[in-house]
Design brief:
Strand order of the largest sheet: 1-2-3-6-7
Number of strands: 7
Bound molecules: zinc ion
Low-confidence stretches: none
Radius of gyration: 16 Å
Mean pLDDT: 97
Number of helices: 3
Distance between the termini: 23 Å
Largest sheet: 5 strands, antiparallel
């Protein structure tokens, strides 16, 4: 089953911290492959395991959405090494379709973890990739970009999501 349904804001697994991946089993390999295909089909530049209903600490990212070779990044059990600076840009999320907001993110990050084969990897990123890493790391902690908003902006989005929910459109 290559494509997996992407869960939306409100699904329980999206709002809980994840557990370590641990050993790279055939199930993990299949999950990674399915997540890559699901991300490309969406299309999106990043996808966390929680978004397909799996409470494990892994995400995939590809700023080219599959158009450029060598751009795909798979991170198992990632952890921050460094985060610095600040950028303010609009962002969205495949689990919050139809909504965008400006979110403060670090300008430069270093992230360490393992690749899809289980080998250690450390990646330095800035700009959009740093933003993407922070967005996906938030997912692994059970946080969505909406949770980082405040006041009216957050209330407005949540009200509209509830309204869509009541209408059976969420
Ligand atoms: Zn997201």
């Amino acid at each position: 089953m290559p494509l997996r349904p992407i869960l939306k804001y409100g699904a329980e697994v999206l709002h809980r911290p994840t557990a370590p991946v641990g050993e790279v089993t055939p199930e993990v390999e299949q999950l990674v492959q399915d997540m890559v295909e699901t991300m490309y089909a969406a299309p999106g530049i990043g996808l966390a395991a929680t978004q397909v209903g799996v409470g494990k600490r892994l995400f995939v990212a590809d700023l080219s959405v599959g158009k450029a070779k060598g751009e795909l990044i798979v991170f198992l059990d990632p952890a921050w090494v460094e985060r610095e600076g600040m950028q303010l840009e609009e962002e969205g999320c495949l689990s919050v379709p139809g909504f965008e907001a400006t979110v403060a993110r670090p300008e430069r990050v270093v992230l360490a973890g393992r690749d899809r084969t289980g080998q250690p990897q450390t990646i330095e990123a800035s700009g959009l990739l740093a933003r993407c890493f922070q967005h996906e790391m938030d997912h692994l902690d059970g946080t969505l970009f909406v949770d980082r908003l405040r006041g009216l902006q957050k209330d407005l989005i949540l009200r509209r999501i509830r309204k869509l929910g009541r209408a059976g459109k969420w």
